[in-house]
Amino acid sequence: RRQFRTVEVWPQQSNGPAEGVKYRFVWDAPLLISPHDANTIYIGSQHLHRTTNGGQSWQVISPDLTRNDRTRMGSSGGLTPDNIGVEYSGVIFGIAESPIEKGLIWAGTNDGLVQVTRDNGQTWTNVTANIPGLPFWGSVRSIVASRHAAGTAYLTVDAHQENNRDPFVYKTTDYGKTWTSIVNGIPRSALSYAKVIHEDPVRRGLLYVGTENAIYVSFDDGANWLPLQNNLPHAPVSGIVVQPHFSDLVISTYGRGFWILDDITPLRAVTPEILAKSVHLFTPRDAYRFRPITAPSTTYDDPTTGTNPRYGASLTYYLKEAPQEAPRIQILDAAGAVVRTFAGTRTAGLNRMHWDLRGEPSADVRLFTSPMYAEHIVPGPNGREAPGTGRISVLMPPGRYTVRMRVNGETQDAPLTVLKDPNSGGTEAQIAAQTAFVRAVQRDLNEAADAVERVESVRVQLAAVSRAAGDPAVRRMADSLAKKLVDVEMELVDLRLTGAGQDGVRFGSKLIGKLVYLGNGIGNADFAPTDQQGEVQKILTEQLRSHVGRLESILANDLKAFNDQLREKGFPNVVAKTAKPIS
Fold it and tell me: Are 119 and 131 in contact (CB under 8 A)?
């Protein structure tokens, strides 16, 4: 196990000019696994070779399919020869076996020939002369045998080494008897020569082609091409494949890079009818509720480290024109309750947003007063984030959801399925218990944040009264009431913190910080809360009820008494906000 063996077609060292070797292999010789039998593998030299026994033996199933021009097989290099045995002329560059007609195999060479067999290599037909405008010495880099029609195939030809940099892309529908050039929409430039073509495995007529500096898509079987660049650098596209399970478009570039366009199902769904509509919401693919695992060890500055796709569900929609207001997107659970609302982008054309599978985050805790002992820190109109706090949200459980989009007075719905991580060790029941636990912690956080907001509102008003009042007795009452409120607020957040440097480690955590810690601690895997997590949650909830009860008593009694005194002295009352309903 976990060993390999060398199974070369012809295990004879081939350094030297091409004229002196039995089989001409290049270092990117095409290798193909048969779509009909995973144990059948093809590889090309000037011949097509096949193995059915893991390389134990190889068959030659074709004659020399190249021009076999011996004048191009001599020693290479100038004053110093350079014959490393991997850059030969007269070799097969492209191989394709029809996935729907067994024995139908295409081969293209780097000296401009296209050949086909329909009897598994017993006889071959040279169809090169049937291809209009084909450069004589062009390299047939890519051949695709259609999975939708046996007689249909596509190929690209690269002639830039002959200083012809035009794109050459062709299609046949009759086994190579006739060919059509399909390059409309690919702009001519010094880097427009085509390198690879790929047929979508699901939608017939949906094609992708890569050139020396771009990737293009065709919705009409190559009649017209449109750029599919997005944020892809203008690098040579050397390989294209559609990952079948997730429907991701994967490409390789000449710089040994891999790029992925996630979820091309909307491209498959695009039709003239959809493009004629003012707005269209595409049905999103299923979203996996992936959970973290231990990451492989890599250096922080590893230049080969890639970027993962956005987590969650990708939501794609079409806008014929940019609307005045951004689309409003809502996620509804199976019971019809809204679990998340956010604004979409409003660019004309295809737009894509992502839902991270989480519900609305807990309330932001904001302070409108200066930190204790730091009066120079003055909050802005929107206050300041309370140091030592945070926000949590519920990672929604697996199940069925609805995506609802409202734009231009029109509403469209699309179903969405959220799937459990197949590698997760937790059960559906454990996920449900965890969800209920995090929701309970979030409710406590929202109630605590509301209490802080109410205290801050009254404290700001008390400070204004204290500054404006000319009566020392009013100032003393205001300061006394403010102190009582601060005592309660300090149980929820630490008013000494400024948020700078090591400020957060000077003092112990307050209630809101403890709730955030508890909520985050359970959310990293699909397991029910531990007994101790449940115990701590109960204690923190009881503490919160006590603190909120004290606040209600102060607002109902002390604030009322203070307002009575203000009215007697002709001052406006301090108004306390009503507690928000917490669900």
Answer: no
